[in-house]
Specification:
Layout: E1 5-6, H1 9-31, E2 36-42, H2 46-61, E3 65-71, H3 77-89, E4 95-98, H4 108-114, H5 126-134, H6 142-155, E5 162-166, H7 173-182, E6 186-190, H8 197-202, E7 206-209, E8 227-230, E9 234-237, E10 243-246, H9 251-254, E11 260-261, H10 268-287
Parallel strand pairs: 1-11, 2-3, 2-4, 5-6, 5-7, 7-8, 8-11
Antiparallel strand pairs: 9-10
Helix pairs in contact: 1-10, 2-10, 6-7, 6-10
This protein binds NADPH dihydro-nicotinamide-adenine-dinucleotide phosphate (NDP) and 5,10-Methenyltetrahydrofolate.
């Protein structure tokens, strides 16, 4: 029987934020530069409001400036594009994040394309996605960046390991695969059309689940001793009418099979926000030629 160890993303993220805060303090003291992050939220999705609040609080805690822009759900696309243009031109703003998903009447591709790539701290702009793909310095999507940081910390060198990423979104799956490839993993990207998904997963030394389906990955899909990174954040109803968070992996079933696994909550989620601050610091340095 394998002893399955949880990966404490919450503690790792807290530590990372503390190190970022030191570097921010240093930047303020030596250069008089305070990194600024603008977060734009359109509409009143309760889950998004929680994330935006958490992001703002942690931004301030790190010693950065936080600019929150809350727009009504019926905001016209042109007005959102005008706000993005103002933020692009504002020297106090080093990073811009437009919370997704956007309401249906707004073309999110168009909005993401309007963000200045140097301020694109989500790493969603095609210029950053392209730079990552060809191996140039890029702002890298926060969630995959956080996943790979946790993997390197716990496994050391990832070279030659077989990684299976379930999910191919531009936000998580695809950039996660790019980063794992950069670490010299042998990478498979699985998705809704994959034949024999359990069999593909069973090959993985590193299994990244980014699907958005509660507990879809079962215990017997996991190779004994594998490292499991559960990106899923799914709210499911409890008996008492409230909701609880579960990942894309059946966490209970993974016990005794996986070697290491990220819990939900307390795994990848907190790393996403810490990496957002890391990207904001990186963007600030580059914009100031540092
Ligand atoms: N922890 C964090 O910080 C973050 C967590 N998330 C969470 O991660 C999850 C994924 O997010 P995101 O990538 O944006 O989601 P998307 O819905 O954009 O992508 C889901 C992917 O999963 C694939 N998929 C769906 N159903 C199946 C299936 N039955 N078998 C195999 N593959 C399937 C889809 O395949 P296809 O392309 O073929 O349709 C798609 O590629 C969500 O739970 C989200 O809440 C997201 C961002 C940050
Ligand atoms: N432009 C954009 N960039 C994003 O990065 C982005 C986005 N839009 N839209 C929504 C998703 C989701 N996301 C999360 C961030 C933090 C947690 C997080 O902190 N989770 C904690 C607690 C969650 C809770 O308790 O609700 C945890 O997993 O432990 C989760 C999910 C960022 N996203």
């Amino acid at each position: 029987m394998i002893e399955t160890k949880p990966i404490d993303g919450k503690a790792f993220a807290a530590n990372l934020r503390a190190r970022i805060a030191e570097q921010v303090a240093d930047l303020v003291r030596t250069r008089g530069v305070t990194p600024g992050l603008a977060v734009v939220l359109v509409g009143e999705d309760p889950a998004s409001q929680v994330y935006v609040r958490n992001k703002a609080a942690q931004t301030l805690e790190a010693g950065m400036a936080s600019f929150e822009h809350k727009l009504p759900a019926d905001t016209a696309e042109a007005d959102l594009l005008a706000l993005v243009a103002r933020l692009n031109a504002d020297p106090a703003v080093n990073g811009i994040l437009v919370q997704l998903p956007l309401p249906g009447h707004i073309d999110s591709t168009k909005v993401l394309a309007a963000i200045e790539p140097a301020k694109d701290v989500d790493g969603f702009h095609v210029v950053n996605a392209g730079r990552l793909a060809v191996g140039l310095d890029a702002l890298v999507p926060c969630t995959p960046l956080g996943c790979v940081m946790l993997l390197k910390h716990h496994l050391g060198n990832l070279s030659g390991l077989k990684a299976v990423v379930v999910g191919r979104s531009n936000i998580v799956g695809k950039p996660a695969a790019q980063l794992l490839l950069k670490e010299d993993c042998t990478v498979t990207i699985a998705h809704s059309r994959t034949r024999d998904l359990p069999g593909e997963c069973r090959q993985a030394d590193i299994l990244v689940a980014a699907v958005g389906r509660p507990e879809m990955v079962r215990g017997d899909w996991i190779k004994p001793g594998a490292t499991v990174i559960d990106v899923g954040i799914n709210r499911v109803p409890k008996e008492d009418g409230k909701t609880r968070l579960v990942g894309d992996v059946a966490y209970g079933e993974a016990q005794g099979i996986a070697g290491l696994i990220t819990p939900v909550p307390g795994g990848v989620g907190p790393m996403t926000i810490a990496c957002l601050l890391q990207n904001t610091l990186t963007a600030t340095r580059r914009q100031n030629g540092l």
